[in-house]
Every structure is written in C-alpha cells, then in structure tokens.
Amino acid sequence: MSAPKKLFVKTYGCQMNVYxxxxxxxxxxxxxxxxxxxxxxxxxxxxxxxHIREKAAEKVYSELGRLRPLKDANPDLKIGVAxxxxxxxxEEIMRRxxxxxxxxxxxxxxxxxxxxxxxxxxEKALDTDFPEEDxxxxxxxxxxxxxxxxxxxxxxxxCDKFCAFCVVxxxxxxxxxxxxxxxxxxARDLVxxxxxxxxLLGQNVNAYHGDGPDGVWSLARLVRELAQIDGLERIRxxxxxxxxxxxxxxxxxxxxAKLMPYLHLPVQAGSDxxxxxxxxxxxxEEYLRLIERIRAARPDIAMSGDFIVGFPGESxxxxxxxxxxxxxxxxxxxxxxKYSPRPGxxxxxxxxxxxxxxxxxxxxxxxxxxxxQRDFQQAQVGRTLPVLIEKPGRxxxxxxxxxxxxxxxxxxxxxxxxxxxxxxxxASNPNSLAGRLRS
Length: 439
Ligand code: 5AD
Ligand code: SF4
Hints:
Helices cover 34% and strands 24% of the residues. With 439 residues, the chain is of the alpha/beta class. The chain has four domains: 5-127, Methylthiotransferase, N-terminal domain (Rossmann fold), CATH 3.40.50; 145-260, Transcription Regulator spoIIAA (2-Layer Sandwich), CATH 3.30.750.210; 263-380, 2-Layer Sandwich (Transcription Regulator spoIIAA), CATH 3.30.750; 384-437, CATH 2.40.50.140.
C-alpha cells in the first residue's frame, strides 16, 4: 500500500463550513488522504470559503496568493476551493488564480473523490451543480474515531427567505432538510464516539421540515426525539429566523431540559423601515414580542443576535432604533457588521450609507453590545452552572469547559473531559469565566 497522501483543509466562515470540512476530509479519507495540520507537507490544500461579506471573499484570493511558493516547491500539490466563494464565482476563480486545480460548490462535495482523481491526472475540475441527491448520504464519515465532546450536525441547508442583503439563497440554494431518521442515526453515531453536545446547524435551521417515519418533522419534533438519546446531554441549534420560531419550538425550550437556554436569533436592525428594505418580513415590535414569549417559556434563556449597520437608506433615527432594540433585549452576545453589498442581491444596487457614517455607527453599536455582553458575563459570578468539560487547559489539571451560554470556563478538574459538572463561577475575565468544582 502506498503512503497516505496528506490533506490540509482551511475553513472560513460559519459553523456549517466546519461541519462540511469534516465531511470533505472523510470523503477524501476514503480516497487515501490523511489530514495534516502542516500545509507544507500537504498533497492537497482545500480552502473552504465564505462569501457572506466582501472581506470574507477577498481573503480567499490573498490566501491563494500565499500558496504560490508551496506550489512552486511541490508541483504535485493540488489546490482546491470549496464553499460559497466556489459556488458564487466558479470558473472565475481559476481565471483569477491559475494555480487552483479544483473548484467545488457546497452541494457537490460527495463528488470530490472523482474530482480528485481528475486533478491527479493533471486536469482541472469544476463542479458547482445543485444535484438532486443528498450529498451527506454519499459522504463517508471516516473511521469510528473518538470525537471531541461537542459536535455539529447539519440538518438543513439553504434558505428561501431572500433577505435583500444576503447571498446565501444564491450560494447555498433553496431550503433542503435532511431526513429525520438519518439525523437520529448520525446523532447516535456521534454519541457512541463520545459526543455529549450536538449543535444542529442550518442557514435557516428552525425552518427544518425533514421527512420522518410518520410524516414531516419540525425542528421541535427533531429536538424532542434527539433528547431521548441516552448519553446525549445537550442540544443547541443555529441559525434561526424570527418568523420560523413556532409555538412548538418555543414550548420545547420550556420542556426539554437538554435544549440549552441560549438562542441565536438575529434581527439585523431595529427600525421597521430598514427591516422592510431588508425584506425581513417582520417588525421590530413583533420581534420583541417573540422574545417575550420565548422568555416566558424559558426564563433563564440568553439571547444572541446579528446586526448590520449602514444598510441602504438607514437614517440616524433608524440607527437609533437599533440601539434602542438592543437596550431592550440586552443580548448576552452579538455579532455586528457593516453592510457589504453582495453581487446579485437585491440591495446591491441601492445607494448605501457612506463608509465613515457606517464605521461610526458600527463602533457605537459594538460599544453597547460589548457592555451588555460584559454585564451578562459578570452576572454569572456567584452562580453555579452546568459546565461541559471540553479540553485540557494550559496548566496541568486545568480544564476548559463550556457554560450553557457558550462562555469558556477555566477550572481545575482532572480527568473530566466529556462530563457535565456543576461549577461555581468565581470570576469573569475579558473572554472567559473562571470556576471551581462544587463538591
Ligand atoms: N453585509 C453585511 N453583513 C451581512 N450578513 C449577511 N449578509 C451581509 C452583508 N451583505 C450578516 C448578517 C447575518 C450574518 C451571518 O452575516 O448579520 O446574520
Ligand atoms: Fe440570509 Fe439568513 Fe436572510 Fe436566509 S434568513 S437570506 S441566510 S440572512
């Protein structure tokens, strides 16, 4: 048998790409590849890319430029671009950067082994189709290795919402849900490998509507069934659209102890005029009332969100409305971005706010969100939280775990990886909490 070839995968963007990268490595594993963390020894480098904002897309081209010396040193090195830039730009990538051998869109990953064979023959390979078959059915999982305690599981891909700023409906296509029984089987397999926390992923995960044995399952049903799996202790899901928060899903937050009290529910803006321009299909008030209902079902739930500032037409008053909404919700954590026009999206042609104004708004919004985030973190001090111990810390015996609210928690707890322990939070540091085991 020949020595395994080496694969180096670099992942950009969202958690769905993290999951996809794992599955691509599995598919190429079946074609004789072993993963490496050192790109200098790689026979194949795959960049799994993100197209959500201009900066993310441009990063790919600068990274490709940096790979030139490696390709000069090893002419057999093959370079591939996967993910949303691959989908959006296709052949253009090979034109702009001739050292790229392979371009594969997110729906065609199961065809990677055949594409790899082609590039080994010295040809170029491009596939940005949206095939009918479920790519995950055809992507091998790799050997039954022990896994880290927390894993991602993609349950749904694509989006039919068409927010006016967003490329996702174009790069990932229409909403497709994976069949429920396959997801349950995959979840059981993860648990057998040592996983205790699963985050269900989808661009619009709460729109999940997969075929089940007795009809179509909603996300709430899927969560309830997953919660029956012994050994699976925590369930999360992301990312959700407010309009798909059904009564059943809200109720599940109150009833399923395994469902973590943390919800990423982006609103993007706090002004109705901007929400309308964004085609979000709900008002600020409707969003706030929704959060009230979620909090009524699960009083200790923490909210997280995404915001865009400088969207075309955003006035000072509109921006103030965003700040006001944040003051009302008090997010435990939030991401905020300057609007970035994306080719082919409805908002791309509109006049946008000047970069100076957008930068100033972003700084103000981030200052407010950071203050709320710090307050929330500080409020954990003195509480006892169930913490999932995930990996060793820097000092011997020290561990790093995860709170229900996704905080990193540092503590002394030898030999405890994969366990959920009661931890008293003793301090709040800039990016983490410190805790000690409750005896
Ligand atoms: N410009 C800026 N931010 C964007 N997002 C999506 N598209 C754009 C864009 N064109 C943000 C949204 C989304 C998050 C994943 O990225 O806030 O929720
Ligand atoms: Fe993009 Fe999310 Fe809107 Fe879908 S719901 S178009 S993924 S921002």
